[in-house]
Request: fold
Amino acid sequence: MTNPTISTRSPRPASVTARAGTNIALVKYWGKRDAALNLPAASSLSLTLADFGSETTVRFAADAGESGRDRVAFGGAPADAKFAERVRRFLDLVRARAGLSFPADVATTNTVPTAAGLASSAAGFAALALAASRAAGLRLSPSELSELARRGSGSAARSIFGGFAEMHAGARSDGSDAVAHQLLAEHAWDVRLCVAITAQGEKEISSTTAMDRTATTSPYYLAWIASVAADLAAARDALAAHDLATLGAVAERSALRMHASAMAADPHILYWNPATLAAIATVKRLRADGLLAYFTIDAGPHVKVLCASADAAKVQAALAATPAVLRVLVLAPGPGATIVSES
Reply:
């Protein structure tokens, strides 16, 4: 019997399509201990979402690409140069592991806005890791897929898994122990995440740039890193007990501390806008009225609100009535990265 933790090889399919959901960190990842390997400075905990992510098709072949160079499409059009190069570097990792030299055709579509603070890269590189590795003839274990996905985007390691997942910062210099694992399956707890969209377009500063600036200039950065372990322990206990109030309190605390460290960077990093603040106030009013609802905010202006499934309609309506909130999505926990088709 094959050891499920060890990668295997199999005949290489002509093309593979994979899908992965975005994930929203409740205990945040913010800062790297090794930028080249995308190794996080602290562990994190997240919720993978259904129907909100990326679908990617990969084909390795002698006739793929253009003049021996990978061809990368995004949303039905040629990808911009920066994104295409990021994908090509990732494909080089897969080719090296599989012993391939063929170029690739890659086509990606998103159901989540790109570079807007909604974790599109997490879904994108999780789907790419699964599709590319399988198209290269590799059969990677979930842990190996998590490690591979992390090389494209630090948070992508968590999107390999459905439901609630924890990403380990690891201690090894090669990053082999910086992987995620599932804590709670997607159907194990009937919660929802209401996402208040508070702006259009891409954010002004990328997460990578913001993390680097925070780590090197913020006087609060080391205190932020030191605070994560206790939040993780509390979040794990809350998940095990299905304790929404405790998990929500941890999520709010982690988000505010992360943003405080970024705001204290030089020059400062401020992702919030007036609608962000208004949405936070709405959540606090809901809670004062007795409804269990808790906010979190990633590297962007949008506000995500964790609540019980039975309360999601009330939360959605309250957020939709908040000044300057553009729209509100209600999202359920979703599965991990999956193969859609192989041919």
Q: What stands out?
A: DSSP finds nine helices and 16 strands in the chain. The two ends are 26 Å apart (CA to CA). Residues 11-186 form a domain with the Ribosomal Protein S5; domain 2 fold (CATH 3.30.230.10).
